Amino acid sequence: MFDKRSWIRLPRNVLVGRGVLSETADAVGELHLAGTPLIVTSPTPRRLAAESVAEQFDGCPMVTVETASFAEVKRVIDEAEDCEAGFLVGVGGGKVIDIAKMASDELGMGFVSVPTAASHDGIVSGRGSVPEGDTRHSVAAEPPLVVVADTGIVADAPWRLTTAGCADIISNYTAVKDWQLAHRLKNVEYSEYAGALSRMTAEMLVDNADSIRPGLEESAWLVIKALVSSGVAMSIAGSSRPASGAEHLISHQLDRIAPGTALHGHQVGVASVVTEYLHSGDMGRWQNVHDALGAIGAPTTAEELGHSPEQFVEAMTTAHEIRDRYTILGDGVSEEAAIEAATVTGVI
Ligand SMILES: NC(=O)C1=CN([C@@H]2O[C@H](COP(=O)(O)OP(=O)(O)OC[C@H]3O[C@@H](n4cnc5c(N)ncnc54)[C@H](OP(=O)(O)O)[C@@H]3O)[C@@H](O)[C@H]2O)C=CC1
Ligand SMILES: O=C(CO)COP(=O)(O)O
Ligand SMILES: [Zn+2]
């Protein structure tokens, strides 16, 4: 009997471009959401964008968060209940977006995503990632109803945040390979649509790598478009599988071993060079990933990330333990194999 089911939760309005911040209230208004929003932001994005968004909603309340933590999620929930907010608007980087997304999920409220940096593909997805205990990977959260990405603001954000977003997209190549492998070996459900969209997104970004340069609004446009498309792939799949494979496991493990050392996207990019090597051993393939990262100025070595060779190898050999997600790491790679892979690819 045919018993497949799918429930795809996508944003309704996605605005990308110069000055679109000023259209936030219009984009939200179309959805006929009830009540006044609570704006969730952090210090820098507050100054750059959130104050202006609040004005569009007649000076609605605002809460400023500092750290990516469950205590902050709880504080946002409390504030939303106190001011009887109708929905949440997250204005900021990944920390803010994820806190707002997770608080919305808990409150059963609509969520609006206003990213001020193109640092990873969580800006559009229904996945939230706030560190809790040893857990670093994303969990299901409220997907945004509206996304407003002003390329003028994103282009002026620190360049390293944008290169991190690019590297998060480049890592889709290996994520899809891991997903296909899990499909073949473990009968994990695979979506051709989500897999193809994720891979195509990485291809388009790599094909345009030469035009991705600091301060250029066109670059912000390209990267945001790619992050949107990668987020849609995750929504189609109903999981982060299209954009998260062994390279993400290694990065999550690095976050546990040495928290706060490097940006998520930079870590998954470097790890992706190694997992591409593990997939095929073909120099052409891992070199392509390496060169694509290099072309946009993202790190390609553990040292550039700020991790020692030992830390990187430890992350490689233990990453398979952190989540029930089959990848090229299988039931674990040996220390010798990890050292070999990381050395051949020049990562350590
Ligand atoms: N949902 C998902 O799939 C994923 C979620 N994540 C989560 O995302 C978070 C990391 O996101 P990331 O964006 O890198 O980090 P942050 O949100 O911490 O932002 C990084 C820094 O950039 C600042 N900033 C943001 N926008 C601008 C701007 N336009 N101009 C100048 N500075 C700016 C922030 O300011 P300030 O200090 O004021 O905040 C902060 O200091 C982590 O919490 C991680 O868990 C990571 C990967 C995937
Ligand atoms: O970062 C992500 C996709 O790029 C989310 O992946 P995780 O589910 O591994 O956290
Ligand atoms: Zn990622």
UniProtKB/TrEMBL annotation:
Keywords, alphabetical: Cytoplasm, Lipid biosynthesis, Lipid metabolism, Metal-binding, NAD, NADP, Oxidoreductase, Phospholipid biosynthesis, Phospholipid metabolism, Zinc
Reactions catalysed: sn-glycerol 1-phosphate + NADP(+) = dihydroxyacetone phosphate + NADPH + H(+); sn-glycerol 1-phosphate + NAD(+) = dihydroxyacetone phosphate + NADH + H(+)
UniProt: NAD(+) binding residues: G94, K95, V96, I97, D98, T116, A117, A118, S119, S125
Gene Ontology molecular functions: glycerol-1-phosphate dehydrogenase [NAD(P)+] activity; metal ion binding
Gene Ontology terms describing biological process: glycerophospholipid metabolic process; phospholipid biosynthetic process
SUPFAM superfamilies listed in its UniProt record: Dehydroquinate synthase-like
Location of this chain's protein in the cell: Cytoplasm
Name of the top EC class for this enzyme: oxidoreductase
Enzyme Commission number(s) from the entry: 1.1.1.261
Positions contributing to Zn(2+) binding: D168, H248, H264
GO cellular component, one term: cytoplasm
Associated pathway: Membrane lipid metabolism; glycerophospholipid metabolism
Residues engaged in binding glycerol: D121, D168, H248, H264
Cofactor note: Binds 1 zinc ion per subunit.
Residues binding substrate, per UniProt: D121, D168, H252
NCBIfam families found in the cross-reference section: PRK00843.1
Function according to Swiss-Prot or TrEMBL: Catalyzes the NAD(P)H-dependent reduction of dihydroxyacetonephosphate (DHAP or glycerone phosphate) to glycerol 1-phosphate (G1P). The G1P thus generated is used as the glycerophosphate backbone of phospholipids in the cellular membranes of Archaea.
Family: Belongs to the glycerol-1-phosphate dehydrogenase family.
Entry protein name: Glycerol-1-phosphate dehydrogenase [NAD(P)+]
